[in-house]
Amino acid sequence: MGYVFQPTSGTQPRGDTPAATRARGVTPVTRIVIIGGGPGGYEAALVGAQLGAEVTVVDCDGLGGASVLTDCVPSKTLIATAEVMTTFDSSYEELGIIVADTVSDEGSAAGPPPGTSARVVGVDLGKVNRRVKRLALAQSHDITASVTRAGARVVRGRGRLEGQQAADGSRKVVVRAADGTEETLVADAVLIATGGHPREIPDALPDGERILNWTQVYDLEELPEELIVVGSGVTGAEFAGAYQALGSRVTLVSSRDRVLPGEDPDAAAVLEDVFRRRGMNVMARSRAAAVKRIPGAASQGPSSPDAGPEGRVGDRVEVTLSDGRVISGTHCLMAVGAIPNSAGMGLEEAGVRLKDSGHIWTDRVSRTSAPGVYAAGDVTGVFALASVAAMQGRIAMYHFLGDAVTPLNLKTVSANVFTDPEIATIGCTQADVDAGTIDARVVKLPLLRNPRAKMQGIRDGFVKIFCRPGTGIVVGGCVVAPRASELIHPISIAVDNNLTVEQIANAFTVYPSLSGSIAEVARQLQTRKAADEG
């Protein structure tokens, strides 16, 4: 059970809290307005409604937000197709699967040059993307049904705070609909959960056809022949790996020394090696300065048999790097970060403090600097994860409505990069250990030693666990493997519950299984701990 986090001076909403009013035997209806229907917003709506509040969700795109409609759900659905292709392409020969040769009309083998491997499967990207959109919309509709069934009201439009807090502690939210009409809502508490949008470079503005951001790739009907991905963070790495698996020739432009600069360095090194081995052109220490579209030959329009969806034959893009080099491809995907959706909402006028980046400042129970105003999700810049946004939204409702609440603890947040192999992390990191922030013992075990990995043809990946030297308490971990997002869970449980390496080592695991490597790492840490004590 959690505890009630006591407000600090200057941030307590004026007037009685719902809990204080209930203590006097009164049962008021607490009015909550949530601006934004992403994970932070809709999870907060469910909690608020379940606790008896009158909840209104203001949303302009559809519940689920960018996470469901244009980001997490669509990208992971696309990656699921890529994953099937990669698994088959990389291991069918080793596993003894026979694929018949293709013979041309002339009767000669139409295979690749000697010494190279044929792509034995292909992809209909238009069909894949139609499935992506269908699943995203279905998920959004399911969320809307859950929220309305819980008793919350959904209003379509864009919301903004109007002025300062009233004498009775309430606030006004003005909702502007697509047709220009406005509605004013009165709320005892407001939650801002408006998310973010793709960052743009002035000389590389997306056109939705050849120069794309990550929300536009699902409109493609044909697979890009040569895709340039600008940005090697999580989004860039995920899309680069996915499109390479689908059959595109991919160039990944990274301004840093390595891909995934914010991740475990050992994990990033494994992924970069895999990318290069599979034929990706990874350009490190290369910063894109501009991207432009180079028109091809004019066609008779999109219906021309030689024209692509854009209605031109042979259109290309050129990416100019900061050192003057120019690289060319058929498409360019810009993955250079995100901007919070905090502008034009009257936040600063209402007393909400913004960071220089535009993100909303919050404490560990999701309060902003303005009484009665909370914030959750990507607009806060805390952790760009749907799970964190959802937790922030739930915490905000628990706190305002007087329920027991445990403040947000980022050390117990597990995260995953959906590349192939996946990279999952929890708690303490290698950077923390290297910087001396925490004293921890580390053991890393390659998956090559795991019997199940050998059976499945898995060559790349490892399990790494961090524990305290004296107690053996597990404080972090990193898994690089297929389905690392599933394998990280036992380590997450250990971190969250202060379990020791002895407890993990003594738990039974299935033989053979990839999870056996987690127990083996724990046993090695247990042995080191015993040696230190001896």
From TrEMBL:
Keyword Flavoprotein set for record: yes
Q: Where is this region: Disordered?
A: 1-22, 293-314
**At which positions is NAD(+) bound?**
G231, S232, G233, V234, T235, G236, A237, E238, G337
Where in this chain does the record put each Pyridine nucleotide-disulphide oxidoreductase dimerisation domain? Answer: 415-520
The protein's superkingdom reads Bacteria
Record-level Gene Ontology MF annotations: dihydrolipoyl dehydrogenase (NADH) activity; flavin adenine dinucleotide binding; NAD(P)H dehydrogenase (quinone) activity
Listed A to Z, the keywords are: FAD, Flavoprotein, NAD, Nucleotide-binding, Oxidoreductase
Gene3D superfamilies linked: 3.30.390.30, FAD/NAD(P)-binding domain
Q: Which InterPro entries match?
A: FAD/NAD-bd_sf, FAD/NAD-binding_dom, FAD/NAD-linked_Rdtase_dimer_sf, Pyr_nuc-diS_OxRdtase, Pyr_nucl-diS_OxRdtase_dimer
Q: What does the UniProt cofactor note say?
A: Binds 1 FAD per subunit.
Quick one: which residues bind FAD? K76, G159, D378
Protein family membership:
Belongs to the class-I pyridine nucleotide-disulfide oxidoreductase family.
By what name is this protein known? Flavoprotein disulfide reductase
Source species, please?
Streptomyces clavuligerus
